[in-house]
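Format notes (please read before filing issues)

Several people have asked whether sequences and structure tokens are stored in separate files. They are not. Every record keeps both together, in the order shown below: the sequence lines, then the token lines. Line labels are part of the format and must not be stripped during preprocessing.
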Amino acid sequence: MLDRLNAIYPTRYTAFGLCVLIALLSLFAMVVSGGGLALLLFLVFGALSIVGVWDMQQTKSSVLRNYPVIGHLRFMFEKIRPEIRQYFLEADNDATPFSRSQRSLAYARAKGEPDQRPFGSQLDMACDGFEWLNHSMQPSTLPSHDFRLLIGGDACTQPYDASVFNISAMSFGALSANAIQALNAGAKRGRFAHDTGEGSISAWHRLNGGDLIWELGSGYFGCRDEHGRFSPERFQASAIDPQVKMIEIKLSQGAKPGHGGVLPGPKVTPEIAAARGVPVGVDCISPSSHSAFSTPLELMHFISRLRELSGGKPVGFKLCIGHPWEWFAIVKAMLQTGVRPDFIVVDGAEGGTGAAPLEFTDHVGAPLQEGLRLVHNTLVGVNLREHIRIGCAGKVVSAFDIVRAMAIGADWCNSGRGFMFALGCLQAQSCHTGRCPTGVATQDPVRQQALVVPDKAERVFHFHQSTLEALRELVQAAGLQHPRQITSHHLVRRVSENEVSLLAKLLPSTPPGALLTDLAAQHTVFTTYWERASAERFGLA
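Then the structure lines:
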């Protein structure tokens, strides 16, 4: 709806300005000639002008701060019939029922509002694909919702005690300075991690002292030399900072795997340039592949090098699964070198909070279920699963999303979309235009001031805590002690109108060590590509 308002009104303040102008003109007419109509106009538009002044001063609603007076239309439509609300608020957005329910749930939990709903489920439980968690007749009782896990293998001397729910990679530049501050302040209070995205560590990440996962993309922002190559010295200077808890090499991302990026020169502000280590006003290029390594073996050596330079902190990588033989080649490089990443983050192709080419968004990369299951099964098949933690991201918002990801094979989950909702994101899908209506995804200094950091930091904290509290209730209902105990045997999926099946029977599995001893009996993807993959190259042998 706000996009439609933008089309009608040239600026965000036009409606407010017209109210003030009409109020002043009617006051003048009333003084000069009197008359009841002038008085009525003055009272109406004077009152609207006062509302507009209040809108710009309040701190709870970014929409009203950016759209005084006219922003109230959005909230008026929320009060009337659902069909009208859906038409005006969702028509141009990512408006599947699932995304709408995700957003509503995130808003409620971020604001500390009740998330209960009367009159049963609004989901169609008879439709194919519907899933549920089997509960126990003897529910457990857990003392805390602060579920954590230790990330760091044998070669790691500074393991990280991480929450099972953290902020996914979103760079400063994609998000505003105020959004970064609010996310990090919320992470600090809730003791969970904030992934920097490949835009590196900015001053806004450091301001509130929340735990950071430093993501290294192919541009090596924050640790690059004058030619854009990896600089060990610059990396070490930032990596040893106690605020940096883990190092994550981005091999590919779910939104646009295999695709580089360019931040146009006019958008490279002094703040962004300082964070990324690039010149102000010059196109900032993120290549589609890394220059620090070109083979799986070199990747393992790079991981070992980063772990040493960072003082023994956990080092891993993020990828969206593409060619399976390339993933197999990385695993073979682990076996050949003895070097293991401390963690792997699997990014689903359905994820992504920023703008990306439509074809990449819809048709490139493996969805989270398939990618996560392949990574989990492969590590099990070579007896490495117990040594490497697996995180995941891809439209993870609710506690059930976390349960489902853990059932498939994850140890923890990251969320970008959920925490953007907590900041007030409306999914206006204008991230790439710089005209974000709520100040979340813009570098416009006026627009982003609508996002009040202390208020939104509180919402980020509440969203995290409320989601983990809901996760505790699900774990208790299943009779378990920790969400990592949830497996594919706990979830059921409807596969047809008259048939349901455990997720364990629908998803492929690999016995421990099977890829080293009994390859012929395994899934087709292994029998087709495992022996043809080589640690020496990413291509087929």
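For reference, the curators noted about this record: The domain at 148-261+289-527 is CATH 3.20.20.70 (TIM Barrel). Confidence is low (pLDDT under 50) at residues 1-10, 81-98.
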